[in-house]
Amino acid sequence: MSYTFQFGEVLRYWPLLVQGAINTLVFSVIAMVAGLAIGVVGASCRISSSRVLRAIAGAYVEVVRNTPLLVQLFLFYFGLPALGLRLSTSQAAILALTFNTGAYSTEIVRAGIESIHRSQIEASTSLGISRLQTFLHVVLPQGLERVYPALASQFVLMMLASSVVSAIGAEELTAYGNRIQSENFRAMEVFFVCAAVYLGLTYLMRVLLAAVAYVAFPRRRALGSV
Amino acid sequence: MRTFTSHDILFLLQAARWTLALSLLAFVGGGLGGAILAVGRISRVRALRSLASLYIQVVQGTPLLIQLFIWYFGISLLGADLSPIVAAAIALTLYSSAFFAEIWRGAIQSIAKGQWESASSLGLTRFETLWYVILPQSLRPALPPTVGFMVQIVKNTSLAALVGFVELARAGQLVNNITFQPLPVFACVAVIYFAICFPLSALSRWLERRTHGHRQLVRGT
Amino acid sequence: MAIVNLSGVRKSYGALTVLRDVSLAVERGAVVALVGRSGSGKSTLLRCINGLEPIDGGEVVVDGRRVEQNEASLRQLRQEIGIVFQSYNLFPHLTVERNVTLALSLVKKMSAQEGRAVAEKVLSQVGLREKMAAYPEQLSGGQQQRVAIARSLAMQPKLMLFDEVTSALDPELKEEVLKVMEGLAREGMTMILVTHEMDFARRVADQVVFMHQGRIHEQGPPSRLFAEPETPEFRQFIASTLN
């Protein structure tokens, strides 16, 4: 074992690494926001009285949860052009990540909504508030607050899993890492540095998500439980 | 260029055996590692606790793909050439062990403190208490998430495709390269994954309902 | 004309019949106490009045309009009827002020300013003006129940329903809620309440309705009813509430 680590060989590519980290974060935040939106709609479908909507949302969740993200990515990136829809690598990456996150969010949000007691709906509709408004102002905010920790850890998992989009050459941290190691042949150092950057992104995401909770859930702030 | 035929499906199915084999390796290896780590996490020795915790934080805080690249590309630079399957098996084992450790620690800690206290007041050592009293009880809560994580393992083996190991996902890529029919090819790949994963998911859900009477939140990708 | 008119109301859950042919008229400004053992159907009856429980037969008419199970007409109806529940059912994620103003802004389309003015008024009425910024779980049970009353009052209902609103409260907290309710009665609010507080019913109600096995078994002004109960069931019931 006469290998000498030369991290300098990697660190001089720092602008690329920074750009990669930013791109990973951008992909993740877009997928997170869009995935949560899908999650809310999907959860509404899962608890709707329409059998068709329930079946569609249920099938979506099962398909996503039981197939690898990588295969989903291939279907979007290689498969959609066959249907005439050509996507850039970034578009395919964001689409696959959103599609994936949406399914997990659907189940998490659904659990949150179902945890809200019927009496809350009764109290709200008894004031003349419509069912849709009741859902948006009474049930959903409480449901999201309750499952927020699960959503947050799901989002961090997704950010880390987003490294697989490098497989289609989407420009993010892992893809840049690959590019650097193909130039300097310092794979060990490159991926160690990448790992460290991802670790930093993990903590950054946790801080960001905690900040979002702080703003989004004033009650917990008031009670000092954030 | 040729069309996607039943031969290709057969090829995919054969490749799926490697997916299963790799999953099994990761499950067994990850299970062993996870058990050791879980014990470390609840150890009374502070250094062991911190060490296990640090390991778990690093593994859960970095992408599996990067860990795989380190084993595959990185280690070869140190002179030990790892074949793709060995690199994948090591990476998946180490990755899974961190998750199993957390699942099982949660199950162990879900057992009421009174069980520890009453066992130790009967004169059992800490290890005896763990082995005869706590572990048998934690089996029930531990089982559903353990089976649930097996689904994650199966899906995670697809990353081995990215270091060139011909399992199911890589086989799909190869077939696609010849046939240029990505939609049927990858749909077929997805169906095979689904056929492996869905029964595990369903089993996990059934166990959960039996254990808790409700479903727990599944996270993953 | 009566503000609430129930005629021949029937209701069952599967094989269990909870209301058998109940008819009742409540005059404007009246305070009606529904009493009876648990399971006698009094809460169900109350919940039929604002359509929380769909009925299987008969008819409920409130303020000249038939209560129907369609969303638009129920929404209209419920703006006229306040209801307060045993378990308060405040919105835990909203401040006291927002609990009161939510329906004002969503249903009555009031501006934030107008809503705030109404909230100040109704919260003063229940003696909790200083708690505007608090969250429900920072309040005692009695305070939460008073906020729930204020939340209903803010909609300026023509009728208030109270469903065992003091049952979940410790004795010392009951009083503060009952005092608020008594004040409302004095101001002429039409009130229908399901209650176990016999002293309160005796003192405040204009009419007491004793329910037994899904029927109105006996009714009349409390002075007469409590002094000379006609049926053995009511006599027994009164005796059982004395201790």
From TrEMBL, chain A:
CDD domains the record matches: TM_PBP2
Domain ABC transmembrane type-1, chain residue ranges per copy: 21-209
GO molecular function: transmembrane transporter activity
Transmembrane segments: 20-43, 55-78, 147-169, 190-217
Main subcellular location: membrane
Taxonomic superkingdom: Bacteria
InterPro entries according to UniProt: AA_ABC_transptr_permease_3TM (IPR010065), ArtM/GltK/GlnP/TcyL/YhdX-like (IPR043429), MetI-like (IPR000515), MetI-like_sf (IPR035906)
Biological processes, Gene Ontology terms: amino acid transport
A GO term from the CC aspect: ATP-binding cassette (ABC) transporter complex
Localisation: Cell inner membrane; Cell membrane
Listed PANTHER family: ABC TRANSPORTER PERMEASE PROTEIN (PTHR30614:SF35), MEMBRANE COMPONENT OF AMINO ACID ABC TRANSPORTER (PTHR30614)
Family per record: Belongs to the binding-protein-dependent transport system permease family. HisMQ subfamily.
Entry protein name: ABC transporter permease
Originating organism: Alsobacter soli
UniProtKB/TrEMBL annotation, chain B:
The organism's place on the tree of life at top rank: Bacteria
Transmembrane residue ranges: 20-40, 52-73, 85-104, 183-207
Subcellular location: Cell inner membrane; Cell membrane
PANTHER family: BLR6398 PROTEIN (PTHR30614:SF34), MEMBRANE COMPONENT OF AMINO ACID ABC TRANSPORTER (PTHR30614)
Keyword Transmembrane: yes
Pfam families assigned to the protein according to its UniProt record, in alphabetical order: BPD_transp_1
GO CC, one annotated term: ATP-binding cassette (ABC) transporter complex
Assigned keywords, A-Z: Cell membrane, Membrane, Transmembrane, Transmembrane helix, Transport
Lineage: Bacteria, Pseudomonadati, Pseudomonadota, Alphaproteobacteria, Hyphomicrobiales
GO molecular function: transmembrane transporter activity
Family the entry assigns: Belongs to the binding-protein-dependent transport system permease family. HisMQ subfamily.
The protein's name: Amino acid ABC transporter permease
From TrEMBL, chain C:
SUPFAM superfamilies listed in its UniProt record: P-loop containing nucleoside triphosphate hydrolases (SSF52540)
Topology in membrane: Peripheral membrane protein
Subcellular localization, as worded in the UniProt entry: Cell membrane
Chief place where the protein resides: membrane
Coiled coil (UniProt feature): none
Membrane-spanning intervals of the chain: none
One CC-aspect GO term: plasma membrane
Keywords: Amino-acid transport, ATP-binding, Cell membrane, Membrane, Nucleotide-binding, Transport
Protein family membership: Belongs to the ABC transporter superfamily.
The name this protein goes by in its record: Amino acid ABC transporter ATP-binding protein
Organism: Alsobacter soli
Taxonomic lineage of the native organism: Bacteria, Pseudomonadati, Pseudomonadota, Alphaproteobacteria, Hyphomicrobiales
